Amino acid sequence: MDENAETIEAAAVDYVELTADLVSAYVSKNAVRPADMAELISSTHAALAGLGASAAQAAPTADKATPAQIRKSITPDALISFLDGKPYKTLKRHLTGNGLTIEEYRERFGLPRDYPTTAASYSAMRAEFARSNGLGQQRRKAAPKAAAPAETVSEKPKRAGRPRKANVSTEA
After folding, report:
1. Do the beta carbons of residue 152 and residue 145 sit within 8 Å?
2. Tell me, what DSSP letter sits at residue 152?
């Protein structure tokens, strides 16, 4: 506990020294009435102390969601963001805009590893779109061709490669 007391005293000394440095630098370049000097020093010290206190309070705390909140955040049409409470079809762009990854988001709010990142209806719509355009069918079509014998001869001649240098050997 003595270390904590020393740290607090050191922080207070730092605020006083920092306040003195800032005020002296300000006064050296700006005209300040002597009557306003006390107010300038006290307001500068209060501002610095307030910054130190807000930095301690601004430490990231884990806002763990309850299981009921997690269930309510998942709807068929959208996922409700724990950051702003708005519905999104996919969370990736929203989280990236807020400087988070999916893993950091899950960790911050205590979400399970299988928490979805896209709404169910959106995923189904994208899958149906892919199927209707024939995506993913290449493997099914290629498998029978690979099993068939490769006796067919191409009508196009093989492409000629670069001419090779002649191997010149010197015989004596």
Report:
1. no
2. P
